[in-house]
Design a protein that fits this description.
heterodimer; A: 325 residues; mainly alpha; MetI-like fold; two-stranded antiparallel ribbon; 74% helix; B: 327 residues; alpha/beta; Rossmann fold; eight-stranded mixed β-sheet; four-stranded antiparallel β-sheet; 31% helix; globular
């Protein structure tokens, strides 16, 4: 187990290095931030002073080397625009995004798995077919459009829910969160539902497919032959088996949920990391972009590790010690 | 001996695209306490489906469409799903063919055994676990206390089948339906399991229906044999009668197909043709197309009659039963 963790950590470092290099070169190729950041009327002297202050006068390889040197001490550079540490900016916005993503994932799981089980048990019933038809909508409707429609219906026409912001927040371990106040929930529920929709559809389809397959297995027939109740057969024998692929997908999707919350955050003006990234890309604020992507990659790596560990808890046949790679 | 199971004219049908198919067609069986009945037939003859019908485990689009099943003096075809569930695993248990597939791979053995006890008996977890341990010990699993904590993949195939048998025995059922439980096992393990099942059935007075395609298995185990073909019972009687003096040409063919009964250097004998599809059964006797004794009379379905009067214990469904070779 320990050897496994060490090997995984080393792999992660390589991934982070490759990632940072790619982004560094990529953003450099896109354009010169100076053209955006500096007042066009500034004279040549001002211009050169600013370039030197941001460290953009040095050759790219040297800039990258300096970045790596800073990164080793936890300093990912200062934002070109705000002048404050990039990592700080991101971490400041992270709780809002995480909160949104967690609530969205919970909605997808809590609704998706039971609906998928039901659709898998009764594939030919009207309810089963309706669930599947609904999941196709969840898959195919674009997130931004659904978000706008939600705002149209619930904020503009019905006036039930606010359309933007986090609402009233309360500190939890020093981090502001919305889910502890009623007003926060009113702000949270619509963007979270919007973000959950795709994953809800995915959960339904995955659970349904798994259930249909599991129901044909001999162990289900044997469980029924033991005289177990239907609830126990489905809730224990079937569910425990289909949880294995579901947990994998939840892990993978949770990472993308955080990374791709951008659209939902933009539509609902949710002050999370995604919105920060969009702004930073507009200003070619390289330190923030690099820091954002490194944070996301780290999150992905951590989530994958958690999934692997959960895997071995769910499936007794998997033992991490024998896992290769 | 008192009758444990009495099946009369059981019919189980499947709605398919090609029409309604009778997988089990007017099957009648009687099993007494402590008796072993061998139910023999090729794949698709409906022998497993007969077992599922008795268990109430026929899945849609299949359905028991007729006949009666009396278990311990109680008609069970008319029971509600809940009442049927209470019987399953309690008064009648079933063991399946492939022990690799029947135990849930992600649940520990104790979980799978305790739940089987608690599904029928309102007892504490500790008591249920004790019963599970005793059952494992009875089927010859060494250090059952430790093995309860193991997962199925930590057992060999033979051991898994013993676990499945232990689960079937947990609630001391009156009847166990064993659906080819030794087919997937090594020959040496097969012999052990057969022997143990026989002993267990005798000791506890449990009736046993042993479903198999292998007549040599039945020969050493069963008290009586019923031979199925295309959903019908074509011959039934005492094991010795069926093996030594088969009356139905199909039974004869099955016996001749057992390799050990053939002479060295001789061509293996086999039944010509193939099991007909249930959607395309001939009018009358289902076996007529493969039978060398068939005549025009076989276009009318033969009834089940005494094979060789006045000897009543052997019955056959054939217009032209074979003569007694030992007479």
């Amino acid at each position: 187990m320990l050897v496994y963790l060490i090997r995984r950590s080393l792999q992660s470092v390589v991934v982070l290095l490759a990632m940072s290099l790619l982004v560094f070169v990529g953003v450099y190729a896109v354009g010169n931030p100076i053209d955006i950041l500096i007042n066009p009327q500034a004279d040549q002297q001002d211009r050169e002073r600013s370039i030197a202050a941001l460290g953009l006068d040095k050759p790219l390889w040297l800039q990258y080397a300096l970045f790596l040197k800073g990164a080793l001490t936890g300093d990912l550079g200062n934002s070109f625009v705000q002048g404050t540490p990039a990592l700080g900016l991101i971490l400041e916005r992270m709780p809002a995004t995480l909160e949104l993503a967690v609530v969205a994932m919970l909605i997808a799981i809590v609704l998706g798995i039971p609906l998928g089980l039901w659709a898998g048990m009764k594939p030919d019933s009207l309810s089963g077919r309706s669930i599947m038809a609904g999941s196709i909508l969840g898959f195919s409707l674009p997130t931004f459009w659904v978000g706008l429609m939600l705002i149209m219906v619930f904020s503009v026409m019905l006036g039930w829910l606010p359309s933007n912001g986090r609402g009233e927040t309360r500190l939890l371990f020093g981090v502001p969160v919305s889910f502890l106040t009623v007003d926060g929930w009113r702000h949270l529920i619509m963007p979270a539902t919007n973000l959950a929709l795709f994953n809800l559809a995915l959960m339904i389809r995955l659970t349904r497919a798994g259930t249909r397959e599991a129901l044909l297995q001999d162990y289900v027939k044997f469980a029924r032959a033991k005289g177990l109740s239907n609830a126990r057969v489905i809730g224990v024998h079937v569910l425990r088996n289909i949880l294995i692929p579901i947990v994998t997908v939840i892990g993978l999707q949770f990472g993308s949920l955080i990374a791709f919350a951008i659209v939902t955050e933009s539509v609902f003006a949710w002050p999370g990391m995604g919105k920060l990234l969009i702004d930073s890309i507009n200003f070619l604020d390289r330190p923030v972009i690099v820091a954002y992507l490194l944070v996301i990659v780290t999150l992905f790596i951590v989530i994958n590790l958690v999934v692997d560990v959960l895997y071995s808890a769910l499936d007794p046949r998997v033992r991490l010690a024998d896992a290769k790679g | 001996m008192n009758v444990v199971l009495d099946v009369r004219d059981l019919c189980t049908a499947f709605a398919t695209r090609a029409g309604v198919v009778r997988a089990v067609d007017h099957v009648s069986l009687t099993v007494h306490a402590g008796e072993v009945l061998g139910l023999v037939g090729e794949s698709g003859s409906g022998k497993s489906m007969t077992g599922y019908s008795i268990m109430g485990l026929v899945e849609p689009p299949g359905r028991v469409v007729g006949g009666s099943i009396v278990l311990d003096g109680r008609e069970i075809t008319s029971l509600s799903p809940g009442e049927m569930r209470a019987l399953r695993g309690n008064r009648v248990a079933m063991i399946f063919q492939d022990p690799m597939m029947t135990l849930n791979p992600v649940l520990r053995i104790d979980t799978q055994m305790v739940e089987a006890v608690q599904a029928h008996d309102d007892v504490s977890h500790a008591i249920a676990r004790d019963r599970a341990r005793d059952a494992l010990a009875r089927v010859g699993i060494p250090s059952p206390d430790e093995r309860l904590n193991a997962y199925p993949h930590q057992f060999s195939g033979g051991m898994r089948q013993r676990v499945a048998i232990a689960i079937a025995l947990l609630n001391r059922p009156d009847l166990i339906i064993a659906d080819e439980p030794t087919t997937a096992l090594d020959v040496t393990i097969q012999g052990q399991i057969l022997y143990e099942m026989q002993t267990l059935a005798q000791e506890s007075g449990t009736a046993l229906i042993w479903i198999t395609h292998d007549l040599s298995v039945v020969a050493g185990l069963a008290d009586r044999v019923a031979v199925m073909y295309a959903g019908r019972i074509v011959e039934e009687g005492g094991t010795a009668d069926i093996i030594e003096r088969p009356a139905h040409p199909y039974t004869r063919g099955l016996i001749d197909s057992v390799p050990s009964r053939n002479r060295r250097g001789e061509r293996l004998r086999q039944i010509p043709g193939m099991t007909p599809a249930l959607t395309a059964l001939p009018e009358g006797c289902a076996f007529q197309d493969r039978c060398n004794r068939a005549t025009a009379a076989c276009a009318v379905a033969p009834p089940m009659t005494v094979a060789r009067p006045p000897y009543e214990a052997q019955r056959v469904r054939c217009h032209h039963p074979l003569p007694d070779p030992t007479a």
